[in-house]
Amino acid sequence: MVLFAVHDLPLLRRAALNLMEDALALRQAADQAAEQRDRSRAALEISERTLRVREDELAQAQRIGGLASVNVDVAAGLIGQRSPEYVRLHGLAEGVTQEAHADCLARLHPDDREAAERILMEALNGPGSAYESEYRIIRPCDGEERWLHVRADIHRDPDGRPLRLIGAQLDITQRKRNENALRTSEQKLGAFFTEAPVGISEISPEDRFLKVNATMCSIMGCSEEELPRMGVKDVTHPDDLDVTFEKVAQTLSSGMSCDIHKRYVRPDGTIVFANSAISRQEDEGTFTILAITTDLTVQRRAEQVLQEVHSELERRVTERTSCGKRSSACARDAR
Predict the structure, then answer these.
(1) Residue 97: helix, strand or coil by DSSP?
(2) What is each CA distance from 265 to 111, 170, 218, 272, 300, in whole angstroms?
(3) 149 and 208: one domain?
(4) Which range marks the domain in which residue 245 is found?
(5) Beta-strand (E) ranges in 66-119?
(6) pLDDT tens, 88-104?
(7) What is the pTM of this model?
(8) Do 158 and 262 have their domain in common?
(9) Model pLDDT for residues 236-277, shown as the tens digit of each residue
């Protein structure tokens, strides 16, 4: 048993107070640690929920945009980590998370396989840090052909050896279909332009022929080399210049199509009657005039012949009527 002297009591009180203060401080620290732990746990839960939401949003954005992530472990032998959107885009079985390079290569279109593999290996074996390629795949689930554009960064070790390929694949199938449709349309338009039985010309706002077809050259009596060096005023009858330029200006400003009945003058002086249907065309902010010209010369000449025949018939009828009247008058006078 330890005995304390009376004069030791103040020391004991101070020691007891210090212990109480230390205990209180420890309790406060423990409470603060618990509160911090609770806040950290709550923050972690919020972060995890936010992460799940962002992952769902990313997956939705990838699905809508036809974008699939690319994550390939090059050092492990080109083992690819497959995201849900990658699995959907490639038509793989649900639940696939990894895939060997040979399996991926087997899905490539036979006509694209060799070139796609060469481009990939050149990127990995070269000194660069970027890889980009376009190729077709054939989905195993339905046999559908898809065009993909892939772009990725190549991560390398300090010695330059490729470690990982990280990037994205974009489904460009619809773009390729649109490009093919556009090429087909342009080919058809080109064939129509070349072989059309009417004159077709594209004219600049400065009155120059930019493009003409063979029929237009025939109407104008010029070669395909001569006409593009000329302007509309060079081949238009002087009396029809004002109405021609007035209607061209109206079409350029308003975008409204119109017809121009006019006369052209060939280099040999021959007059050509024609109708030109003009419309405004726009290409990257630049306006031009597209003119579809029909040669009416034969029609006009036929109309003139008919008019002359009609006039001649009227003249003869008038003469016969006059003769008949004179004969009747003579007969009356004789009686």
Answers:
(1) coil
(2) 56, 57, 12, 6, 15
(3) no
(4) 196-295
(5) 67-73, 79-81, 98-99
(6) 899 999 888 899 999 99
(7) 0.55
(8) no
(9) 999 999 999 999 999 999 989 999 999 999 999 999 999 999
